[in-house]
Specification:
This protein is mainly beta. It is built from one helix and ten strands. Strands 1, 2, 3, 4, 5, 6, 7, 8, 9 and 10 form a ten-stranded antiparallel β-sheet that branches.
Length: about 170
């Protein structure tokens, strides 16, 4: 059964089959989740300090917050906080080299939703994501040792996806 679904999917994706790939049912072995959250990947520089900030929230999996200063692994830290983004406000803190790195600001959904479809193979799974992305307009600042670094975030978007993961290791 699973092989016939995969074969039909390959034919549909190649344009040789009559069945559209989206019309195929997921394998009975597939894990389907709804995942909502935000992605902000930010960079900035001020007064000789450069910063990279990664903010990721996912309703079905853990959140992630990372700060890297001056592209130096010794000046980097990450953690998995409960909530960084609430009611349009972003606030996250982390200790780097004994000092507090604080990211604060706002992010708001802007523009129209954009349909997204992505298929990847990762760690023995075929992962299909279908849903929407919506741009986040944002105004964020990192403060570290008295230096305020304005952050420019791209990509910066909110997402709402239906994610299907199918094990590819045991046909």
């Amino acid at each position: 059964m699973r092989s016939s679904i995969l074969a039909a999917g390959v034919l549909a994706l190649s344009g040789l089959g009559a069945v559209p790939a989206a019309a195929l049912p997921p394998s009975p072995l597939a894990d389907i989740t709804r995942e909502r959250g935000i992605v902000l990947e930010c960079r900035g520089e001020a007064h000789g300090l450069s910063a990279y900030v990664d903010i990721y929230e996912n309703s079905a999996h853990s959140h992630y917050f990372q700060v890297v200063l001056d592209d130096d692994p010794e000046l980097a830290a990450s953690r998995q906080p409960q909530d960084l983004f609430r009611k349009g406000k972003i606030r996250g803190a982390i200790r780097i080299d004994g000092h507090r790195a604080l990211v604060t600001g706002e992010a708001h959904r802007a523009g129209k939703r954009k349909h997204v479809h992505e298929e990847i193979d990762d760690a023995g799974q075929h992962i299909v994501s279908d849903g929407t992305h919506r741009r986040l307009s944002n105004d964020l600042v990192l403060t570290y040792r008295g230096i305020r670094v304005p952050l420019d975030c791209a990509p910066a978007f909110a997402y709402d996806l239906r994610v299907t993961r199918t094990d590819t290791t045991g046909d």
